[in-house]
Design the sequence.
């Protein structure tokens, strides 16, 4: 289960992307997470996914 707090979610997801996954799609598939919902939740606090850097900025 992904963290509910958006800032903790940001930290968690970026750490996972850095350490364990080559893409957001791979992370979502492995964690059974809805990509659109995840992106929406982080965009709500001002972060967008940068595919080239494989992280939310």
Sequence:
């Amino acid at each position: 289960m992904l963290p509910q707090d958006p800032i903790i979610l940001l930290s968690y997801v970026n750490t996972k992307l850095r350490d364990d996954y080559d893409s957001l799609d791979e992370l979502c598939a492995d964690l059974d997470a809805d990509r659109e919902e995840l992106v929406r939740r982080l965009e709500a606090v001002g972060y967008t996914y940068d595919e080239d850097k494989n992280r939310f900025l």
Observations:
- Residues 22 and 54 are 7 Å apart (CA to CA).
- The longest helix spans residues 6-19.
